Amino acid sequence: MIDEIAFQTNLLALNAGVEAARAGDAGKGFAVVASEVRALAQRSAEAAKEIKVLVARSGREVATGVEMVHQAGEALSTIVAQVAEIDGVIGAIAASAQEQSASLAEVSATVGQMDQAVQQNAAMVEESTAATHAMKAETVELDRLIRRFRLGSAAGPAGVGTVGAPSVRLARIAGGRVVESPES
Q: How wide is the angle at C-alpha 17 spanned by C-alphas 13 and 22, nearest 5°?
């Protein structure tokens, strides 16, 4: 459109120059104006060419921008898909962590029960040790008391033991049965 306007202006300036030349000296001023209009038409045509180049360049750059926007859209779609995949993996990790937490709670409870059992066993061992020491003391005392008696076949009146010792009836176990020995 600008080219067409420049062409028409140039044509009008050319016609005005021709008419000024016919007018002679009276048309000299008009010829100067026609010449200026013609120069303006030339500059308009050159500006139109430059604008055409700029519009073509802008068109190419817009097309490149559209392609880049399209590529960015595809990249964003890929990122969204990967984020969804990561979200799934994180969900699986969270579920696994909850399962491990429950397992650790069970292990902790079992360890607590084992600790209680160990403490009970330690208490029973202490009680057994105390009972064993008491039994040992009683055994020592019983041994001391038994040593006071003298056993054997000492010569003396029938039914009387060694001098100063009371008469005692002893029993012994033979074959799972209690057998009494004669009085000493």
A: 150
Q: What is the pLDDT along the chain (184 residues), one digit of tens a residue?
A: 777 777 787 777 778 778 777 777 777 777 777 788 878 888 888 888 888 899 999 999 999 999 999 999 999 999 999 999 999 999 999 999 999 999 999 999 999 999 999 999 999 999 999 999 999 999 999 998 888 887 665 544 444 444 444 444 444 444 545 445 544 4
Q: What angle do CA 124, 126, 129 make, to 5 degrees?
A: 110
The pair of structure tokens assigned to 21 is 């030349």
> Which uninterrupted H or E stretch holds 164?
none
Structure tokens at 86: 């990561």
pTM above the 0.70 mark? no
**What type of residue is 37?**
V
